[in-house]
Amino acid sequence: MKQENRHIEEHSVDPPAGILAGRHAITEAIKAGRGINRILIADGMHGGVRELRDLARAHDITVDIVSRAKLDAAAEGARHGGMLAYAAPVSYVPVEEIISSVRARGEEPLLLLLDGIEDPHNLGALLRTADAAGVHGILLPRRHSVPLTETVARVSAGALEYVPVARIGNIAQTIRALKEDGFWIAGADMAGSDTYDKANLTGALVLVIGSEGRGMSRLTRELCDFTVRLPMRGKINSLNASVAGAILMYEAMRQRTAKDAVPHG
């Protein structure tokens, strides 16, 4: 009897925070609109795989085939049946929904696009500042970028509950679509054409912050309408991404609340 109870206990472990284990849990979470960062399926799995992959594709969720050993390690003893998913602490919001909500309030949208931010602490700090500076939403690429995680939520100190985050696919396509919708694209760059306080940061605007080490990608930089730089007088020629983003977000807020603010023509 003791052995039987021990066997039940070993198989009734809850998965770690932020992880959904098993096909049923993952499927219902997707249908309920919960944010899913990535789905892992054990190599060689057959039952229910096609249905889950089709559902994931319909919701633009990445699916990776991995070893069962990797699933076991991620599940930390929880039963997963060959499938698990990394869930975001909040649901992602479509870009169009963010923009329409802002314009319905009679405001000009201010968005932050993060090109390759991989440190969850930087993302959490950017979210916290975005909330304070009145940024309407953050655009987060699906690839080569940290997703929303429990660490991000913790560092954001609650801001994640108030600043909507959209996951985007191709950055270039997103920028082009936003331009067609009347947005100006301003990128932070060490060799920017204007200093941050001289550039016009009013109107429908997307501020682009590049990765911690490389900055914006070449294509992203080329698609910007203009780039801005932060003056450097010290020995170090770069700033942490969250610090640079904070300066630009507050400058945008200052300009947009000024009585003589003139939007882009």
Describe the structure.
This protein has helices at 2-10, 23-31, 49-58, 68-75, 95-104, 120-133, 150-155, 171-180, 218-223, 241-257; strands spanning 19-21, 36-42, 62-66, 83-87, 110-115, 137-141, 165-168, 184-188, 194-195, 205-210, 226-229. It is of the alpha/beta class and 265 residues long. It has two domains: 19-87, 60s Ribosomal Protein L30, Chain: A; 95-257, SPOUT methyltransferase, trefoil knot domain (Alpha/beta knot, 3-Layer(aba) Sandwich). Helix 6 (120-133) runs parallel beside helix 10. Residues 1-11 have low confidence and may be disordered. This is RNA methyltransferase, TrmH family, group 3. Belongs to the class IV-like SAM-binding methyltransferase superfamily. RNA methyltransferase TrmH family. Keywords: Methyltransferase, Transferase.
Features:
tRNA_m1G_MTases_N; 60s Ribosomal Protein L30, Chain: A; RNA methyltransferase activity; RNA methyltransferase, TrmH family, group 3; seven-stranded parallel sheet; Alpha/beta knot; disordered N terminus; four-stranded mixed sheet; 2 domains; 265 residues; single chain; 10 helices; alpha/beta; RNA binding
- The dominant shape is elongated
* Secondary-structure arrangement, i.e. CATH architecture of the largest domain: 3-Layer(aba) Sandwich
Which spans of ≥5 residues are poorly predicted at pLDDT below 50? 1-11
Number of domains: 2
Major sheet details: 7 strands, parallel
Average pLDDT value? 89
- CATH classification class of the largest domain: Alpha Beta
Share in β-strands:
15-25%
Class based on secondary structure composition and strand pairing: alpha/beta
Q: What sequence of helices (H) and strands (E) makes up the elements?
A: HEHEHEHEHEHEHEHEEEHEH
CATH superfamily of the largest domain: SPOUT methyltransferase, trefoil knot domain
How many β-strands, per DSSP? 11
Alpha-carbon Rg, integer? 21 Å
Family: Belongs to the class IV-like SAM-binding methyltransferase superfamily. RNA methyltransferase TrmH family.
Protein name: RNA methyltransferase, TrmH family, group 3
InterPro entries: Alpha/beta_knot_MTases, Ribosomal_eL30-like_sf, rRNA_MeTrfase_TrmH, SpoU_MeTrfase, SpoU_subst-bd, tRNA_m1G_MTases_N
GO molecular function: RNA binding; RNA methyltransferase activity
